[in-house]
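Entry for 4'-deoxy-4'-aminopyridoxal-5'-phosphate complex. Fields follow.
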Amino acid sequence: MNTVVDTKLIQALDSAHFLHPFTDFKDLNDRGARVITKAEGVYVWDSEGKRMLDAMSGLWCVNVGYGRKELADAAYQQMMALPYYNSFFQTTNVPAVQLAAKLASLAPKVGDRSFKHVFYSSSGSESNDSNVRMVRRYWDLLGQPERKVIISRNNAYHGSTMAGASLGGMSGMHAQGDLPIPNITHIEQPYYFENGKPGETAEEFGVRAAGWLEEKILAVGVDKVAAFIAEPVQGAGGVIIPPSTYWPEIQRIVDKYGILLISDEVICAFGRLGHWFGYEKFGYKPDLVTFAKGITSGYIPLGGVMVGNRVAEVLIEKGGEFNHGYTYSGHPVACAVALANIEIMEREHLVEGVRGELGAYFAKRYAELNAHPLVGAAETCGFVGGLVLVKNKQTKERFKEEDAVGMVCRAHCFNNGLIMRAVGDRMIIAPPLVMTHADIDALMDLIHMALDKTLVELKAKGLV
Ligand code: PMP
């Protein structure tokens, strides 16, 4: 495969024809896009030959790293046998069935909740749209059609379709296009650094933050609330890791009022938190689990929902036709790649690695960033990490939004061969699960270097 390209030509065509997601088009055209041409292991290269350590796993998805021939072979073989067939009209295909059974075997039973069924889509956003449809159908079938309201959280990310963006709590997204759609409402996120009161412990804050759900349920009216949706750890919101007390209290509240719990694990499943599913890490009992990204390590689009017995039994037993589905629900090639991807993860014990010694090493090295003068708090959970850049370490004074410190730091990362993402004043990573100890050391050296250079620049600008 020829990866040598004329950068200027590709950039010109890019500007002329390609509208990128979540992008200020004019600004990008002025600057020109970075052209990524190849990748291997945990590194990507741009068209100028620059190598970068991809600490974001693409977009939180390339869990097994780049260059896995096995995944390409799985796609090739399935394309030759059966590249496509639908699963609408009393038909099915072998990889979709095998994957559903495999997922059912990987999803652990918690309490009275088990997962035997899967509904497929091609992305996280579509999967959350399916959740909205399924949750409302569930309550309709139980004779409670007035239970329509889904409660989510500010700064959550649940996708970019109309329902996905509405479930999400991104004010910038809501501002464009009259969102959220009706019957979706939000509570505050469990971000201790920002919302903890002076003298309040993280554990006390966790209980208080979960209490906002109970307040909202009572304000909306118990008989109108259908479900609560949340990510185990908020990813795109800036890797917001909830205090240990948060999820147990959320569970108590959803149980008390009988509302469904949706765990959006588009980022957190498939080893990201050291478990096959994120709910295992925190020990709660979801009714529906959204997945995408890591199921194929991003090699091909696939998403879906694990449908727990509580919902599945009603849909199946009381059902009739569920008027919802996608052309690519259960796509044979995507499912074949997912099976091969899971096989790699099992054979190489990647999930155990993140949960075990490798994950502990990553956590220990990442925690060292707390000593840096610009870092307010650096935390990890499995293989996600976040840190907040602060003006004053002692007082925890934050920078102003217009200082754009995250973007300053991100530029130093890129320039020095590291892909780290900025969310406001938070710098975040989600490295591939195949990182070695040496890769983690290299990553930490690069982060330190980027932080040092950021400090120098901010000092020169008089911001610190
Ligand atoms: N939910 C979560 C938690 C996500 O992180 C994302 C994507 N970052 C989505 C949903 C949407 O997934 P997609 O971009 O595949 O539609």
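NOTE: The chain has two domains: 34-64+351-460, 73-347.
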